[in-house]
Amino acid sequence: MNRLSLKNIFRGCRLGRTSWMALFVLSLSLGDAFSQELQTLSDEQVRERLSFIETALTSAQPRAKTWWYGWVASYSAGAVIMGSLAAVHWKDVKRDPQTQEPIPDRGFAEDMLVGSATFALGVGGLLIDPFVPAYGPNRIQAMPESTPEDCRLKLQKAEELLRESAKRERDGRGWLTHLLNLGANAAAGLVTVLAFDRPWSDGLLTFATGEAVSLLNIYTQPRRAIRDLENYEIKYLGKQGAYFMPPGERRFYFGLNPGGFSLGMRF
């Protein structure tokens, strides 16, 4: 039995090494194929593709930066403010209804402490896994394109960046992100109940509040790179599918009139 088990283990290790080697060889083959395809393109075709990707990345960058920096700033401010409030109110007291003796009143401070910790986790997540569409285009803009070879190399890097940006957007709304947020907010609720000996209703409220903020973060995340990559592959790489037209410009308006006011959106 021991020999058979050892044989199975060694066989599994060999299969694992073989699989990793196969994936490595496949990635090299795909990279060579892409380089060979670039060599078959004319200079005009290279510049056209490069212009498409650069326009897509740079036009999407302002909103991506607003989302990423906005959430980093909001989470940071929330962590600092709530942490400060927790420190200030940690020694609050109230009167016992029966004995009228002063007793600790830390409910508010405990809520602020838990909230500060969850906001700090949010900042950490955004910094550990930064939003590529917010800063990635700067890398492409800095690359030279004075020669045909420069343009081909820049196109290769630009396409890689577009794919990386689309992947980051998909991951930002993927199931793993939802699970991580659920876990963090559930942990915050449990800390409220178990560590601070609070009722379960308080823990559920903590969880619900944190989850609402998490969902707002997820569903306000831009998804422009996903659409742009799809259009690029349809237009230049022969992928089957419907071309996504860019959405029309949306404008909000507000007006006052003798009978009241008007609020709407044109698109």
List keywords for this structure.
disordered N terminus, mainly alpha, 9 helices, 2 domains
Describe this entry's structure for a reader.
There is one protein chain. The strands form 2 sheets. The protein has a two-stranded antiparallel ribbon. Helix content is 73%, strand content 7%. The chain has 2 domains: 1-40; 42-243, no CATH class. Residues 1-7, 22-34 and 248-253 have low confidence and may be disordered. The longest helix has 47 residues, at 43-89. It has helices at 2-40, 43-89, 107-128, 132-135, 137-141, 148-172, 175-195, 200-219, 224-236, and strands at residues 93-95, 102-104, 251-257, 260-266. Helix 7 runs antiparallel to helix 8.
Ends distance: 72 Å
What's the number of domains? 2
Computed Rg: 27 Å
Structural class: mainly alpha
- Beta-strand level of the residues, as a percent range? 5-15%
Largest sheet: 2 strands, antiparallel
Q: What's the helix count? A: 9
Quick take:
The protein has about 270 residues and is mostly helical.
Annotate the secondary structure layout:
Layout: H1 2-40, H2 43-89, E1 93-95, E2 102-104, H3 107-128, H4 132-135, H5 137-141, H6 148-172, H7 175-195, H8 200-219, H9 224-236, E3 251-257, E4 260-266
Antiparallel strand pairs: 1-2, 3-4
Helix pairs in contact: 2-3, 2-6, 2-9, 3-7, 6-9, 7-8
